[in-house]
Write a structure and sequence with these properties.
Number of domains: 1
Number of helices: 5
Distance between the termini: 72 Å
Strand order of the largest sheet: 3-4-6-5-7-8
Bound molecules: zinc ion
Structural class: alpha+beta
Radius of gyration: 27 Å
Helix content: 10-25%
CATH class: Alpha Beta
Shape: elongated
CATH topology: Muramoyl-pentapeptide Carboxypeptidase, domain 2
Number of strands: 10
Length: 184
């Protein structure tokens, strides 16, 4: 169920999840007076990807007001205008980002409805059903999918070792002159 958030009331730093803020997801080119539509499933899956890939997520585009969507040449009725889509990349910097193909495979792993692979970003959306495409040039090419992501192995649990009994340390009490006055 898509929810509505007020950017004006909550502020850009409002957290939609552990690592994703309302400001990052809200529409660019808008003053915040319109509600920001957010599908919680979209945010949850992007957060899952962020955790699996172990790299910060960056939003080229999240929610788009109808006006902003038209301004950037988005398809009318785009899932971006419903708060159900995002264009994202992962990494500390764009130059050393997680490869686009790997990000698409991870999006497949978390079972997004729609996944699009672009040079430099991926599109993900929570449409019902399944749609996969890539956009190498100016054409969209429908593809079967991006399978093959292998999640990182969980760390081995620390072996539980019984602590060795502490060696008895003799306690010696010396008087100020240095003579041993007691040994326990
Ligand atoms: Zn998109």
């Amino acid at each position: 169920m898509v929810k509505q958030y007020s950017l004006v009331k909550l502020g850009r730093g409002y957290k939609l999840s552990k690592n994703i803020t309302l400001g990052e997801f809200a529409s660019k080119g808008a003053d915040g007076s319109e509600p920001t539509l957010v599908d919680p499933e979209l945010i949850e899956k992007i957060q899952q990807m962020r955790d699996l890939l172990g790299a910060p997520v960056h939003f080229n585009s999240g929610f788009r007001t109808v006006k902003h969507n038209a301004a950037v040449g988005g398809v009318a009725g785009s899932y971006h205008t419903k708060g159900m889509a995002a264009d994202i990349w992962f990494g500390n910097t764009f130059a050393d980002r997680i490869p686009d193909e790997e990000a698409a495979r991870c999006a497949e792993y978390v079972s997004f409805g729609g996944i699009g692979l672009y040079p430099g970003r991926i599109h993900v959306d929570t449409r019902p059903g399944r749609y996969r495409y890539r956009k190498p040039g100016k054409d969209y090419i429908t593809v079967a999918g991006f399978p093959g992501y292998v999640p990182p192995a969980a760390p081995e649990p620390e072996p539980i070792v019984d602590p060795a009994p502490a060696a008895a340390v003799p306690v010696r009490v010396l008087c100020r002159c240095g003579d041993l006055i007691e040994s326990l």
